[in-house]
Model the fold of this input.
Amino acid sequence: MKYDITVIGSGPGGYVCAIRAAQLGLKVALAEKYSTLGGTCLNVGCIPSKALLDSSEHYHNAIHRFADHGITATGVSAHLDQMVARKNQVVDQTCKGVEFLMKKNKVDVYIGTASFVTKNKIAIAGTDGVKEIETDKVIIATGSKPAMPAMFNYDKNRVISSTEALNITKIPSKMVVVGGGVIGLELGSVFARLGTAVEVVEYMDSILPAMDSDCARELMKSLKKLGMNFHLGHSVTGVKATKSSCTVSVKKNNTEEAFEIKADYCLVAIGRRPYTEGLNLEGAGLQTDDKGRIPVNEHLETQVAGIFAIGDVVKGAMLAHKAEEEGMFVAEYIAGGKPHIDHNLIPGVVYTWPEMAAVGKTEEELKSAGIPYKSGKFMFKALGRSRASMDTDGLVKVLSHKDTDELLGVHMVGPRVADVIMEAVALMEFRASAEDMARICHPHPTYTEAVKEAAMDATAKRAIHM
Ligand code: FAD
Ligand code: NAD
Done:
């Protein structure tokens, strides 16, 4: 069989690329090594984690927040096995949706591990043997796997990654989370809401060290109220596990201070690494860089003409929507279009409660680049909508250029900011100023009013409600 495009990997990068290429009239094959389509995001990432976040949030609200609203809920109990079963149903439906879309768009799906024979010939090893297909272009969308240094003694039983954490069916008494990044805080929240004592060990002096430090500090205050405990500036020096528990050795950085934490689980969430095993990149004349990523140029084309790479396996944020944008970009580029992605405007969201979201540059980045800026803030506690829902933790920060007032970065932690951030993304895509943001009429009462107020604060310290 001969194809115009073969996409390797069916995550949000790969399957979106396959659909867009098919829409543009190209003959497309998609190879996926697992029997379900959708990659990390649909199977063991975005979707299952959000399903458990939603279930645990309902439980937490029933126990801790209903009473303030005048609701008495007696006999409320959490059944993690049912939460996981519901999560599995959501995953199943979502993955089947991708299968349907492949059929609808006449994409030929091959289940098996794809590897390069040459740059134009791909072997796919499945349960029914090895098939070879010819292809004009290849898109590598093989994603990433959890980073798991050997010192953690990862046994998938007591020392686990996010993949195993999503399938725990009995509420643990205690969990150590290594890494105060996105996965650590999201999954840590799930268990903390269900009553697990969660201890986060983070190497840096802040959670979410790459995000806005004011927002990270505010989020940490909220997560402490939830009962999560933080050891910032600490390292794990070893983990020992038995069949039923584990002991994590922790040391304060640059000191001799050390202690042990015994827990049911140690969840290691210290980042993810690009995944290229089994691809036989050498068969196509390709190499990875020192971080294991596939190097690409501004068109996402590798050193070998006709082979492209997208998503977690290349540089940039490891986010599903970034992979999708790159998938569409490559399909349109190959079909002769002139697509565009602004990687500076890929928003990032942390689905804790309150949520945290950001787009553009942080203050730290602007300072180190020597870019002059103005900053405006607004606290959710001053907003009527927040008081009505009793979601008063958090703030919005707007950063704009000191001279031109162009929006440079918007950072927020607060209720539903995963959705609120889109206003900032859209305005920044059109290169709006903080003054534009401040002058747009925002519906009352909504959480979005905090954005307008922060923009008014940034332009002329003229926020109305603070
Ligand atoms: P992947 O989704 O990793 O897909 C790659 C696919 O390639 C896999 O299915 C793999 O089996 C397949 N493959 C690999 N090698 C081969 C081969 N040789 N042959 C055939 N197939 C192969 N991102 C967000 O934006 N929002 C979130 O809320 C979010 N939550 C997350 C929660 C968790 C717990 C995790 C782990 C990740 C989360 N992410 C989130 C990150 C997101 O899942 C990834 O950024 C995204 O899935 C990357 O997409 P991708 O297409 O590049 O790769
Ligand atoms: P991360 O990069 O977000 O966080 C890892 C954290 O671990 C960092 O704070 C880092 O300082 C810390 N760390 C690193 N080594 C350590 C060590 N030895 N000891 C203690 N702390 C250590 O990585 P993650 O949370 O594993 O997530 C992986 C990727 O998945 C991220 O790139 C993220 O973008 C993506 N993801 C996104 C979402 C979302 O968009 N909501 C959710 C989950 C995952």
